[in-house]
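Can you make up a polypeptide sequence alongside its tokenized fold?
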Amino acid sequence: MNTTASTPAATSAPTSAPTSPPTSAGTSSLTGAVREHAGPDIWCEDLVRIYSTEGVEVQALQGLNLVVDPGDVVALVGASGSGKSTLLGILSGLDRPTGGRARVAGVDLLTMSRAQRVDYQRHVVGFVWQQTSRNLLPFLSAADNVALPMVITGRRERTGRVTELLELLGVADCADRRPAQLSGGQQQRVAIATALANSPAVLLADEPTGELDDAASEQVLEAMRAAAGELGTTVLVVTHDPTVSDHVRRTVQIRDGRTSTEVLRQKVVGADGVERTVAREYTVIDRAGRIQLPRQHVEELGLHDRVRIAKESSHVQVWPDDQDHHLTGAEGEETR
């Protein structure tokens, strides 16, 4: 008897048109994210990055597609070597793609000059590293670290913004302390405030909770989400931390250099009047019509080499290949 691999993932590709959350900065006096473009804040199409070492080519990204709308908070997950860090390096302006197209906040990442790249990193994107020691200067206080990006860009009225950002991130009482006097979680929250100092449209975070315990991780993630909601900043977090999923609306998984699956979360009120968070998994379909089935399904159903598919009125069914029971004609077709 054939087993049907049924999953909501096979029928939709929310990457191409995600639902946008509100981007308003609310009633706060803080200056929100600065945008002079229309459309998504992050847009990648068929992105390729190839590294060559000693005559060996490694494809870190193999035609990746990703769209993130303004104000969204997205977690990017995947196994080591899947291409997460490579993508973050490109989006931050630290690396260039080998092929494809990419824009962040309307800026074309493939055509920037060196001067434009510096301006991009100062004004358009903020960045938080995993290693807390890389985010803050050890000889400056928390307040001075937050003020430093504004000093570099010549921004005025810095004192008030420093105070408001530290309050927003819940570390106002740490303003006069140096990094060595702060806990790991406090350091990361100050680092987020520093990354937001010049009102970037996009905040990129590379494993921001990687060196923290569970309690501190939750505080940092919640502070990041709150800050994004207050300022309208788009947040992309690269992480291995499974608890991140509870703090983002959308989780995108990368596999073999491509986006493979997504999980979208939304709050719904049931018939009993209780609000619950509903999560639904999707498989991403690219422009060529290709999808990556979830690895768990592939392994459990013994899918390999080729599978049989059959189109129904509202969905497609997938079976393991069975040489003794080929389907033909209207019943289905065999595909590689």
Residues 1-27 have pLDDT under 50 and may be disordered.
